[in-house]
């Protein structure tokens, strides 16, 4: 590492400086400005013999330390990383924001790191915008690692742009600490290239798919340890007197021969074919082929990959997950080409050629033992056919029909249900989904699509689908239907113009496409009223077509909704009209904080929580999931609390955990997501403490009458 500049005679932060005192530098001088930060005058010596200065950030909106040149600006041209020696003096992690300001307006870089407790480390901040997506994953290495005996921590996400020829200051701050937080600071300098950033992603995955720079109880070092841990037999679940489908005889309702929903004594239930109450405790994505990861273009991340020949060739493949209409994984490198399946390779190491059959048997035994009673969405259909647990089916509607952009578009644009080709595609999807299962009593029902973009973030996100419809091109079927509605409502363009407060000389401007739809405002309430009416009509067209297609091809089973992630009141209300059960993917501490439970109670419709989870980053994968907890030990308590809250809601008829297996350290094929929220790791070894807490929570619910 070539050092470009050095603050202070020894170190800037170790020198006993006043708030405005100037420090000598080898190439310049600098001074500090402290705001709501106090400094201990005497420097301290760390275990490695390096002097450091203690600074305490006081409770305030944004206590901060600003480092500035005494005169002019710094010229960092040719440099790639800012390095700061820093040590967290607290026994817990603290949040540290780093802002680097240029002399010109808009010249600014911003990064935030979680600074763990422990020894001093070098914090490296790239001097340009950076993202883990550039390395093919959604979350980068968030914990320190050793490099040449030194502890290194890299800011993997950096936002903004910076003119390196004129740098005005470096600011360290903490966002609104509630109590005094102390850190120790040492040397601050910049270096050429980006040595720490690239080293953070080098050699991070071992032959088993595990993160190389961490240790945890379930981590294995050899095949023998892998086999011993995987084949360990789970405890046998105690007999609970349930019927063959997992229903409780203590809650006897109507028997129809199929799963259905029924309300009794003020509470909604799913009901088994034998007529017993059933609360669905499910797991999503119970399959062996969902956690593959791309290796092409980033081979340096992987240590000891098996050869792509012989028996190992079966675990390599090629694919392409580039989709310009999807927000998920947008801007990601390494989203196509050669991939490797660590999970399946580990199963082969354990069970040999018959690994898939062995995995299915073992997995079903585990789910039973852990108290689950449902194989939820996107799971291996062969597990369904074994008829040991009830299951759901996914109906993915794909085709060449039109679409509408809302600005959210995480999984793609909204399907246009007014396009006649959509009804054809829905019918084809329903026929395919029902094939071989329409007469199976073990089937709970069908989910259709997933996390559609009914809305978008922001204060006016509720209206995004209406605005997006009007801003579509002229040939859009949805747009033509909306325009026709407005013409019927207002009759003449001047009436619409007055109601909306816009200029509209003729209907031609509205017919032409890409209309600059206005955002609702208080002065023109007709805009929100018209948009709301359109959202109802759009949802009605979608859910009516899908419900009809499902019931046409399967008159027996439930339509479980479309797994709302973002929604509008209009979409939920209409969904409740056409669906047998309304499904929400609710990522929150408890269900009621993630969807409008009171509104659903008024609609008097059963609800299934089709996804939820809690993750941490201390078991390998860098991501902590949508809802994170501090450590692995807290995941079980969070699960129990969530289930207890769900069971207390009389409308909720089930909760489905996402997901069975941890995601790869380097990100799954679909979108680079790489979180730790599985029941088992990439080695198929269960996270023992977590699954035991899950088992107890599930057993407590299933014992209730």
Automatic annotation (TrEMBL):
Transmembrane segments: none
Source organism superkingdom: Bacteria
Gene3D superfamilies per UniProt: Galactose-binding lectin, Glycosidases
Entry keyword Signal: yes
Keywords (A to Z) from UniProt: Signal
Signal peptide coordinates: 1-19
InterPro entries (UniProt xref): GH
Protein name: Beta-agarase
Organism: Rhodanobacter hydrolyticus
């Amino acid at each position: 590492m070539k050092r470009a500049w050095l603050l202070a005679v020894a170190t800037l932060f170790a020198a006993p400086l006043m708030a405005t005192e100037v420090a000598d530098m080898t190439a310049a001088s600098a001074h500090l400005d402290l705001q709501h930060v106090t400094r201990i005058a005497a420097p301290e010596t760390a275990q490695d013999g390096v002097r450091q200065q203690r600074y305490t950030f006081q409770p305030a909106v944004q206590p901060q330390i600003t480092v500035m040149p005494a005169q002019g600006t710094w010229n960092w041209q040719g440099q790639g990383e800012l390095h700061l020696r820093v040590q967290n003096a607290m026994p817990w992690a603290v949040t540290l924001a780093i802002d680097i300001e240029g002399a010109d307006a808009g010249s600014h870089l911003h990064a935030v790191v979680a600074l763990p407790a422990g020894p001093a480390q070098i914090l490296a901040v790239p001097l340009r915008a950076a993202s883990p997506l550039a390395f093919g994953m959604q979350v980068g290495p968030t914990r320190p690692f050793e490099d040449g005996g030194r502890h290194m921590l890299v800011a993997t996400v950096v936002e903004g742009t910076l003119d390196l020829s004129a740098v005005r200051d470096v600011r360290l701050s903490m966002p609104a600490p509630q109590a005094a937080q102390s850190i120790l600071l040492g040397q601050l300098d910049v270096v050429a290239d980006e040595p720490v950033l690239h080293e953070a992603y080098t050699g991070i995955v071992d032959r088993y798919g595990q993160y190389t720079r961490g240790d945890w109880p379930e981590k294995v070092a050899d095949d023998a340890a892998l086999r011993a841990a995987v084949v360990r037999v789970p405890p046998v679940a105690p007999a609970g007197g349930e019927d063959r489908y997992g229903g409780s005889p203590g809650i006897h309702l109507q028997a129809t021969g199929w799963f259905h929903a029924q309300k009794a004594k003020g509470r909604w239930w799913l009901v088994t074919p034998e007529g017993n109450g059933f609360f669905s405790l499910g797991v999503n994505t119970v399959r062996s082929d969902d956690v593959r990861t791309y290796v092409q273009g980033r081979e340096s991340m992987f240590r000891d990959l098996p050869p792509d020949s012989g028996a190992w060739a079966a675990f390599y493949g090629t694919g392409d997950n580039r989709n310009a209409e999807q927000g998920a994984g947008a801007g990601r490198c390494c989203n196509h080409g050669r991939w490797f399946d660590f999970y399946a390779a580990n199963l082969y190491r354990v069970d040999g050629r018959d690994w898939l059959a062995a995995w299915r048997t073992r997995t079903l035994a585990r789910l039973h033992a852990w108290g689950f009673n449902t194989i939820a969405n996107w799971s291996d259909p062969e597990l369904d056919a074994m008829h040991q647990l009830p299951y759901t089916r996914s109906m993915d509607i794909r085709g060449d029909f039109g679409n509408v952009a809302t600005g959210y578009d995480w999984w793609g644009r909204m399907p246009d249900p007014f396009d006649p080709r959509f009804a054809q595609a829905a019918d084809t999807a329903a026929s395919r989904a029902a094939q071989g299962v329409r007469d199976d009593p073990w089937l709970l029902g069908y989910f259709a699509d997933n996390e559609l973009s009914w809305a978008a973030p922001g204060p006016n996100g509720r209206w995004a689908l209406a605005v997006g419809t009007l801003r579509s091109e002229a040939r859009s079927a949805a747009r033509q239907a909306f325009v026709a509605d407005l013409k019927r409502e207002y009759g003449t363009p001047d009436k619409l113009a007055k109601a909306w407060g816009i200029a509209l000389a003729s209907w031609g401007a509205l017919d032409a496409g890409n209309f600059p739809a206005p955002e609702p405002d208080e002065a023109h309430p007709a805009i929100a009223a018209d948009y709301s009416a359109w959202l109802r009509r759009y949802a009605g067209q979608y859910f009516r077509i899908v419900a009809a297609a499902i019931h046409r091809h399967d008159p027996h089973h439930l339509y479980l909704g479309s797994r709302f992630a973002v929604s509008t009141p209009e979409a939920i209300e209409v969904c409740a009209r056409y669906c047998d059960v309304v499904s929400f993917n609710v990522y929150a501490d408890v269900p009621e904080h993630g969807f409008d439970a009171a509104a659903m109670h008024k609609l008097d419709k059963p609800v299934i929580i089709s996804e939820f989870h809690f993750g941490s980053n201390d078991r390998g994968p860098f991501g902590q999931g949508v809802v994170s907890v501090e450590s692995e030990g807290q995941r079980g308590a969070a699960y129990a609390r969530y289930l207890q809250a769900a069971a207390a809601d009389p409308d909720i008829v089930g909760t489905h955990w996402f997901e069975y297996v941890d995601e790869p350290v380097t990100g799954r094929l679909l979108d680079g997501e790489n979180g730790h929220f599985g029941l088992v790791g990439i080695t198929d070894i269960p996270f023992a403490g977590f699954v035991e807490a899950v088992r107890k929570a599930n057993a407590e619910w299933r014992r209730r009458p």
